[in-house]
Structures
1.
Amino acid sequence: MLEELSLGFPPIHLSNTNMSSNLLLFRSAIRPLISSIKLQHISIPTRVRASSHHLGRCVSSNAAAAAAAAAVIVSKDESYGNKQIISLTPQLYNYLLANVREPEILRKLREETATMQGSQMQVSPDQAQLLAMLVQILGAQRCIEVGVYTGYSSLAIALVLPETGCLVACERDGNSLGIAKKYYRQAGVSHKVDVRHALAVDTLKDLILNGEACSYDFAFVDAEKKMYSEYYELLLQLVRVGGVIVIDNVLWHGKVSDPLVNDPKTTSIRNFNRSIMEDKRVSISMVPIGDGMTICRKL
Ligand SMILES: C[S@@+](CC[C@H](N)C(=O)[O-])C[C@H]1O[C@@H](n2cnc3c(N)ncnc32)[C@H](O)[C@@H]1O
């Protein structure tokens, strides 16, 4: 029965951490649900039990119903006000992805990156779309990205920046930057991207020394997890009041919520999340998209 349920989900076509994180979160959240659905809700009518053909169809339709039902968790805990919370199943995530308007050039870059080592690091198309929309809502002219890799999120940002806009793209790895630059050229946005091949902290400090504090509208952080607090403090100096800093991987494959997981990266992200929660210099929204992103607006 469990196998039928799993087979009921369409395959996932993307491969990256954000996707697999969703899957991990989904699996850990859904396993007990599936077990209880199996026990409580999937009963096979006696009149079709004799036919394996009918049995298959019955299980499939029940499985589909169970899968759909499993996408919604209704908490019995009154502290949630009995609110229905959606759990992102692969089926539902595929639906969501089918409703993302991914530009052709980003699709090409994503597909080329998928063949490379580390492709799981790339943000997902729905995340990139949200980043681009935040840039547009802000009317941002000046942006910073910490952690470019092959350029998927930076290209999504550069594509929506005005012609006079600028994205400072911080990355320490020259090889992946080579691919990013190729796609900036193909997309005709190279003039908007100021590539900084260096350690991100050094670049951010240089920008401050160069008198650029409070002059940026938007920043996206997606690099070394243990450095998040340092990136954040420097970016808070560089971003103007009303500007936005988005931090990726704040749910860290769901590990942050598990008190038994205390490896250095998880602990570091958990501590960072706690410090942001208490930081009165920003308003915040933690969003369960990809591997979790926190949107901070400087007050
Ligand atoms: C998660 S990936 C970025 C993914 C990218 N945002 C995208 O959507 O494709 C993290 C990147 O940060 C870079 N990185 C890690 N530590 C860094 C540092 N200290 N300075 C600059 N880049 C760094 C890594 O080389 C890697 O390419």
2.
Amino acid sequence: MVEVIKKIIHNRAKCLKCGDIIESRYRHDFVNCSCGEIFVDGGTDYCRGGAKEFRNFIDMSEYEEKEINGTITRTP
Ligand SMILES: [Zn+2]
């Protein structure tokens, strides 16, 4: 079995309306762009974002993927 863990490095997004790139840096860091169209929240704990119209929301988050090779069940 292979498990993959996704770690958030940058929780950020771009607003197509005003062109702002916003970033949530910690858990309760709720950030709006300057026109109020989009937001990101959650920092690197969880990735939350939204928009009034989702086509204005460009996800620019960066993830680190880690594979875990373990939890192998063997019958002797
Ligand atoms: Zn905006």
3.
Amino acid sequence: MNIGKVLWIVILLALVLLLAGAAFSAPAWDPGRRELESRTPPQIPHSTEGRRDCLSCHRDGLRPPITPHPERVNCVQCHVPSQQ
Ligand code: HEC
Ligand code: HEC
């Protein structure tokens, strides 16, 4: 075997390893989305009767916990009332 052949084999091997590495390490998901899905939205501990405008309190209220995501307008899509 001459040096040229050995070099080609080494290069080919390196390429195969590189491609395999890319296939396994490439993130097939959006990390932001995964982070969101891994957390459970807290239940609404109070009645939603007469409290349909969630943001009136949770945008910048003094006592209620302020929502970290006022841009998600349909609150009850994720937050389930624990009582009616
Ligand atoms: C009149 C003000 C007011 C309105 C309107 C209101 N909330 Fe609340 N919310 C509170 C208060 C105060 C708390 C703190 C817990 C308690 O004392 O009941 C709270 C707590 C919560 C929590 C618990 C947060 C945590 O960290 O556990 C969630 C979730 C929540 N509210 C969602 C909602 C949603 C969804 C709506 C709309 C359907 C809404 N709230 C409307 C006052 C309000
Ligand atoms: C796409 C789903 C989704 C929607 C829609 C949504 N939330 Fe949330 N909410 C979550 C998740 C998940 C958490 C827990 C986040 C965390 O622990 O960082 C959360 C946390 C909260 C908390 C607790 C914050 C704290 O510090 O304790 C409040 C209050 C809240 N949301 C209010 C609201 C209000 C008000 C709306 C509507 C304007 C709303 N959410 C819409 C998913 C959602």
4.
Amino acid sequence: MYITELSHNNENIINKIFCGNCIKIMNKLPKEIVNLTFLDPPFNQQKDYSLHNDSMKEEDYWKMMEDVCSSVFDRTITGGAIYFMQREKNTEFVLQTLRKTGWTFQNLIIWKKRTSAVPVKNKYGKQYQVIVYATKSSKANTFHRLRINPILPANYKFARENGIYVTDIWDDIKELTSGYFAGNEAIRTNNNQRFHKQQSPLALLLRIILSSTNVGDVVLDPFAGTGTTAVVSTQIGRKSISIELDPANVECIKNRINNIREADNIQKYYENYICTENLSEIWGIPTNIYNLNVVNNSNLFNVMVN
Ligand SMILES: C[S@@+](CC[C@H](N)C(=O)[O-])C[C@H]1O[C@@H](n2cnc3c(N)ncnc32)[C@H](O)[C@@H]1O
């Protein structure tokens, strides 16, 4: 099926991977069908992408981001959410872009990397990325206050009774670094190289999707890369729409979804949120039927090429 044939029947769109430019594709999708969007675009930092120019003029790059945010806004239901991830030095541009396109700022999340800081001359080393959480309208219509139970600081005498609420500083999620330390989650080529250096950790998407959606909601990822958003969404009963420019990545997403690897099984994170009220309802599918073959249906995720 080609993108020009899209009808307003959402069944053509839900749980699909679209291959092409996200702005063109999103502009053809029906309005107000999305509950949550995760935006992890290339950061315009001269990285090597096979089909995307990561060395754009700053003004062209931010004009493109404005078009993306505006199209996502139109596709989002009132009270829906966006999480826009960027380098910390671009925070002001992210905030500006979201404001200009109608979004209401909620939080500036600091994702503190668990790796050592990147050394910089003449200023402090860099150790975090920002994720701006914003909503369409003044407040979210879905926000679950997740609770976690991180290791107690050394000076704490007593264990907590029931964990703590997640705040806007996320320092408990490991990024997939290069080399051996990226672990099993990182997808590798036959010669053991990382398939996609910007692959996001499952744990990051899990926190975002659990916080800002309910079972059955629609999650959009316009820069899908290896499909982490869809891989998480499908395991917790959310619907997904993935868009990716590079056909090689689209093929990777298709394989990843249809044959979910043990390393992609998100059930291992359930315990981390056990202190959360109504966790089983938010999580969706009970642990004991968490057989990943549920998504092993080649018709569930179809690739559409424009
Ligand atoms: C930072 S990566 C996203 C990684 C993703 N979060 C993951 O977990 O794998 C950005 C992706 O956007 C894709 N891309 C770049 N320009 C695009 C465009 N205009 N439309 C759709 N995808 C695009 C790139 O090919 C790349 O895979």
